[in-house]
Design a protein that fits this description.
The chain is an all-alpha fold and 265 residues long. Helix content is 67%, strand content 0%. It contains 14 helices and no strands. α12 crosses α14.
Length: 265
């Protein structure tokens, strides 16, 4: 099977975007596109790394470095999985996939070292969650209640910290994270999952089901919210799913359109 050249692939995928032309990027900055050996696996993850590297190149700063760290993590995870798959005809594929994963992990370590003294809230939480950096956590928590944490990601990270410490506060933070989404933003479905779990633990199955249904509506391929899972939940708690499904649709529509308001807890 003939592989599509990386430059051609990203040009095709970005052809409908108004953003930078990555085919030109590969011509002007071949080191970015040639960082990894080309493979049919993990194309989108590799493209994301290219975009984020370009952003750091154009505007060096901790915000873009955080985005690049996440992109490298996603690529490394994908390559780790791909490297476990034996290619029948080309055994060397497994070797260069392992090599690609190692390269990505080396860059993750390099970027982590570069940002160890950051003041960026997303990176502060990154250093806490990945390396248990207590100083980074202390800096992050000091920002609570300030504009620096008024983003969906920062509120979700704050909620993650309080999950086992204060469930009610966690729920408040998760709802506020959803309030901060603007129209047509990509929504982190882990927020939906966390809210559903909290309501289930509070023995509020109707509310738990609504958020479970919203996961399925927004991300139909999510394995944790399969039809079987939902049907079992409906049966166990004797729920009127038709009515609750309507609430889920309206709630999700409000979030997608940037009109969500936190309910009373």
């Amino acid at each position: 099977m003939k592989l599509i050249p990386f430059a051609l692939l990203i040009a095709t995928l970005s052809g409908c975007d108004s953003g930078p032309n990555l085919a030109e990027l590969c011509s002007q900055h071949p080191n970015i596109c040639n960082e990894f050996t080309e493979d049919s696996w993990c194309k989108r993850e590799r493209i994301a790394v290219g975009f984020k590297n370009l952003a750091v190149l154009q505007e060096p700063g901790d915000k873009h470095k955080f985005d690049l760290l996440v992109a490298y993590e996603n690529y490394a995870k994908c390559m780790d999985f791909a490297s476990q798959i034996e290619h029948i005809k080309l055994k060397e594929k497994r070797t260069f996939r392992i090599d690609n994963a190692i390269k990505a992990k080396n860059r993750i370590q390099q970027l982590s070292d570069e940002t160890v003294n950051t003041e960026n809230p997303d990176l502060l939480f990154y250093h806490w969650s990945r390396y248990l950096d207590k100083e980074a956590l202390a800096k992050f928590l000091k920002l609570e209640g300030t504009g620096a944490l008024e983003t969906p990601l920062a509120q979700f990270n704050l909620a993650t910290y309080y999950t086992k410490r204060d469930p009610k506060k966690t729920l408040t933070l998760l709802f506020h994270a959803l309030e901060l989404y603007k129209q047509d933003d990509d929504i982190n479905i882990e927020i939906f999952k966390s809210i559903s779990t909290i309501f289930d633990e509070r023995n509020e199955p109707k509310k738990a089901y609504i958020w479970l249904k919203m996961i399925q509506l927004y991300s139909p391929d999510d394995e944790e919210t399969s039809i079987k899972v939902r049907e079992e939940y409906i049966k166990t708690h004797a729920l009127d799913s038709a009515y609750l499904d309507k609430i889920a649709v309206v709630t999700l529509d409000n979030i997608i359109n940037g009109n969500f308001k936190s309910p009373r807890i």
